[in-house]
Structure formats: structure tokens, C-alpha cells
From TrEMBL:
GO terms for molecular function: guanyl-nucleotide exchange factor activity. GO terms for cellular component: plasma membrane. The lineage of its organism: Eukaryota, Metazoa, Ecdysozoa, Arthropoda, Crustacea. This is Uncharacterized protein. Gene3D superfamilies: Ras guanine-nucleotide exchange factors catalytic domain.
Length: 97
């Protein structure tokens, strides 16, 4: 799983936290350094620096009335079926080989 440069910097920071906390720095069995973890952290740092070095060119969202927000929430469809969600995800971001 890689981080794409279009993602917001805070996602990089969250990903970095999970990479750091979820993987040991030294492999317990062999006592060797976990270079895969170091590679993931370095890749995330490069992406974070890239994202922070660019200006955000998007316009802020226009304010919505309370009625518009309520109508949106009333008509919001929630998909809680894991297979449908996985299918939608794979359609948006196909697995790379």
C-alpha cells in the first residue's frame, strides 16, 4: 500500500504513526533492523515534505444553509455491506501488479 501525492499531509502523519506503532524497529527473532519499516517511514516523509511544499489551490467550500445540510443528511445513503464497499474501492483504485 502506497501513499499517493494527492493525499492531504495529515493522512501522511496518521499513516506514519500506524507504521511506527504497528511495526517493531528490530525483529525479535533475529535482532535485525526492520528495513521495510524504515523504507515505509522514509517514503511517507518524502510524501509529507512534497505535500507541505506545495500550495493548496482549491477553493474553500461555499457555506450551506441549515436546510440544505438537513436535506443532505436525510437523503444520505449509508453502505455497510463490506463486499459492496470493497467493490467500489477496487473500481476507484484497482490493485497494482
Amino acid at each position: 500500500m502506497g501513499i499517493h501525492t494527492g493525499e492531504k499531509p495529515f493522512k501522511c502523519e496518521i499513516y506514519m504513526t500506524f507504521t511506527n506503532d504497528g511495526n517493531s524497529t528490530v525483529q525479535e527473532a533475529s535482532g535485525l533492523i526492520n528495513f521495510e519499516k524504515m523504507h515505509l517511514l522514509a517514503q511517507t516523509l518524502r510524501t509529507l515534505r512534497f505535500c507541505r511544499g506545495r500550495q493548496l489551490l482549491s477553493q474553500p467550500p461555499k457555506p450551506r444553509s441549515e436546510m440544505e445540510v438537513q436535506n443532505y443528511l436525510r437523503n444520505l445513503r449509508v453502505i455497510d455491506n463490506q463486499r459492496i464497499l470493497t467493490g467500489l474501492s477496487q473500481r476507484l483504485e484497482p490493485k497494482r501488479q
